[in-house]
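Inverse folding, one chain.
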């Protein structure tokens, strides 16, 4: 096969630019080739067609989201700041958010698959150790907050609502404590299992610090 003048990576970068600036509706072979400065032939040579290109573009966008969260999150409060970064991503990168979460390329059929694809590394263990929940309780709290936060993020990305962060964050905190209290109640009723002893609704200082800390909010509001 003759050597291609345009590399596979250049085509993916061109597709990313089209997606980010113009949206998924403009992702077709002709438009991507125009952005990359080549004919459509390299797209079919490297990817075999648009479907494989879109799959690889999806994975690249997901890596971009992880970097976005890592660069902006507070390492001492990964759970809190990861959710707020997710909201910021929906507001600042609407086209990428829609492609990642409002398109068929995610291919998740169960909540467990959603968890595996969307959970940020280390957050579940942070919830477990900081709040004294069991592994199952920590995963459930994370998943519940993920779903709640994602609903708000979808409204932002779809421009159905232009909500300021100072209005969003108290609602997120309210949902957090509601979910946490319910999970604690259930775990305390069930009693210790598998050697894990759930705490009473205490460690009040940790919870008050969690509710009162606004360092993540300030960073996002300055964007």
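Residues assigned per position:
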């Amino acid at each position: 096969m003759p050597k291609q003048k345009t590399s596979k990576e250049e085509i993916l970068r061109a597709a990313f630019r089209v997606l980010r600036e113009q949206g998924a509706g403009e992702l077709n072979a002709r438009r991507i080739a125009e952005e990359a400065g080549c004919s459509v032939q390299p797209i079919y040579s490297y990817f075999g067609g648009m479907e494989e290109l879109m799959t690889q573009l999806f994975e690249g966008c997901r890596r971009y989201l992880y970097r976005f969260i890592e660069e902006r999150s507070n390492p001492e409060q990964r759970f809190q700041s990861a959710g707020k970064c997710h909201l910021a991503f929906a507001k600042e990168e609407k086209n990428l958010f829609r492609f990642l979460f409002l398109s068929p390329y995610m291919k998740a059929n169960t909540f467990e698959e959603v968890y595996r694809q969307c959970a940020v590394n280390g957050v579940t263990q942070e919830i477990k150790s900081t709040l004294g929940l069991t592994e199952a309780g920590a995963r459930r709290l994370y998943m519940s907050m993920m779903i709640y936060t994602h609903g708000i993020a979808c409204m932002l990305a779809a421009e159905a609502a232009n909500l300021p962060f100072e209005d969003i964050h108290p609602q997120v905190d309210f949902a957090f404590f509601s979910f946490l209290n319910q999970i604690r109640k259930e775990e305390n009723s069930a009693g210790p299992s598998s050697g894990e002893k759930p705490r009473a609704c205490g460690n009040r200082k940790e919870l008050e610090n969690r509710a009162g800390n606004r360092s993540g909010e300030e960073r996002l509001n300055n964007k």
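The chain is about 70% helix and 0% strand. The chain has two domains: 1-48, 61-221.
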